[in-house]
Design goal:
Layout: H1 3-16, H2 29-40, H3 48-54, E1 58-60, E2 67-78, E3 84-95, E4 99-101, H4 103-114, E5 117-118, H5 120-135, E6 139-148, H6 149-152, E7 163-168, H7 171-174, H8 176-185
Parallel strand pairs: 2-5
Antiparallel strand pairs: 1-4, 2-3, 3-6, 6-7
Helix pairs in contact: 1-2, 3-5, 4-5
Length: 188
């Protein structure tokens, strides 16, 4: 991450909107902007494989019951407008195949893929891909819903519009009963 370029971008934005980057209250804004962007885009240069290696903390489990982690709070930035995707929640289910992942790692994976420019559909498929890589599970489902400021605060300006996406593999893709069980469990 090039912090100097991010600071310059912050200064240029202030100038472009007619502000004086040297006025009181704005002097430190370019640095703050750079720090914020570095934090919010921390996984930009990491592939799904890199993220899988970072959070590959599984342990043997003899059971094969469904595991669901729901209502993981997220936000990201739309790659089309650099606009905020907010009030996002992810619910992730999988059927272990001999190994399970620590529950906090599921949330960390979701957060990691959100810390790069994204579209909501890819957030779900990235989470699913990483979960497959780590756990070896074939049956994974990811439901995400969220609001996009590119729809709520600009353009068509429809506050409260919610986008829902579902990414699934294995039996979650082919078995409507299993899929419905997941959706009911997460409250849909």
């Amino acid at each position: 991450m090039d912090i100097k370029k991010l600071e310059e971008a912050g200064r240029l934005i202030l100038e472009a909107i007619g502000e004086d980057p040297l006025r009181e209250g704005l002097v430190e804004t370019p640095g703050r902007f750079a720090s914020m962007m570095a934090e919010q885009m921390a996984y930009t240069e990491k592939s799904n494989e890199d993220i899988a290696k970072e959070f590959d903390k599984t342990f043997v489990s003899p059971g094969s019951d469904v595991v669901i982690v729901k209502d993981i709070s997220l936000f990201s930035h739309c790659e089309h407008h650099l606009a905020l995707m907010y009030h996002m929640t992810a619910s992730i289910g999988y059927i272990p195949k001999g190994r399970v992942i620590g529950l906090s790692k599921v949330a960390r994976i979701a957060e990691a893929v959100s810390k790069r420019l994204q579209i909501q559909e890819r957030i779900g498929s990235d989470i699913r891909d990483i979960m497959e890589r780590i756990t070896g599970a074939e049956d994974i489902i990811v439901y995400i819903e969220g609001e996009h400021s590119c729809m709520t605060a600009r353009g068509i300006k429809k506050p409260g519009s919610v986008t829902q996406t579902l990414s699934s593999s294995g039996r979650y893709r082919t078995d409507p009963v299993l899929r419905q069980e997941f959706l009911q469990t997460i409250g849909l």
